[in-house]
Design brief:
The protein has 121 residues and is mainly beta. Helices cover 10% and strands 53% of the residues. The chain is built from two helices and six strands.
Length: 121
């Protein structure tokens, strides 16, 4: 589960304003570069079609899914704590939990059998 913890206004490539929901996953315990343990939580932004009022009302809502690390084109990131500029090769994205059964599971099943499965009704 992830929680909506805020929102922010962003600009599309065409210069149009839109709101992104700020999502946060559960607490994780990580080893720092010096070997010490610390608690953190992954965050990701999710584009939305909602206005600011709706985004504000969604804060605290939980979504079924997780926040996963995904490789991407390199980009520069400035650490807010230290001011250090880093080159990153990943980002965090929201992965919703699938509610539907993947079609691969049904490839060798007879069509009549499918019609009798309650999750497909």
């Amino acid at each position: 589960m992830v929680k909506i913890i805020g929102y922010k206004e962003s600009l599309s490539n065409e210069g149009k304003a839109f709101n992104s929901l700020v999502l946060q996953g559960g607490v994780e315990i990580i080893h720092s570069a010096s070997g010490n343990l610390y608690a953190t939580a992954r965050k990701a932004n999710l584009a939305s079609a909602f206005d600011a009022e709706t985004c504000q009302s969604l804060i605290g809502t939980e979504l079924v899914g997780s926040i996963e690390k995904e490789e991407c084109m390199p980009y520069e990131y400035t650490s807010p704590q230290t001011g250090e500029v880093l080159t990153l090769y990943h980002r965090y994205v929201f992965i919703p939990e699938e509610k539907k059964v993947p079609m691969e599971m049904y490839r060798e099943v007879d069509v009549q059998e499918l019609s009798m499965m309650p999750e497909l009704q």
